[in-house]
């Protein structure tokens, strides 16, 4: 019987892609207004800074998600003052938070699981600070018992260290632990390798064929009936 359910955050508990699009547009407008960067040029400049960040950090750590450092690198490459970096970071995240809303059925799913006596955890590739802010804004944080971030474990999904710490905090055997996420590569494969029960959250109709059979849900409120 499943005792603990661990959830990915971005594109699982809320639609990151949609919120990111709004935030990135705000960032693009800031770059046009304050830095003189043409909107059509900004995505390539942003990607170049991200590539530099991944190269410098080695790629398999939470620092690759640090937007403050990413924007610092972008500004340095442009020869612009770095005082813009914290302003850009706050603009991005505050805009994303305003645009974010829980995935369909997310809150009812979490509430059902808690009422059934299950431990709830979070497993996310990201720095801890903004993930806590997101969960507070989404109204979900009080429902969770523990969190594992790649910042804490210095390993990104689907790494063995990451999922090992998830199981340590789950306080149950791997067979009694489910991991719910949107990424086949990171969430599903990582959970399978760790011996957990993977659940693939994929709300779109079209879906690639997984290498191994896996429970797939299109709404999070399907989870209680199909997993427990």
Automatic annotation (TrEMBL):
It comes from Candidatus Flavonifractor merdigallinarum. Its cofactor is Mg(2+). This is HAD-IA family hydrolase. It comes from the Bacteria. GO terms for molecular function: metal ion binding; phosphatase activity. GO terms for biological process: small molecule metabolic process. InterPro entries: HAD-like_hydrolase, HAD-like_sf, HAD-SF_hydro_IA, HAD_sf. Pfam families: Hydrolase. Keywords: Hydrolase, Magnesium, Metal-binding.
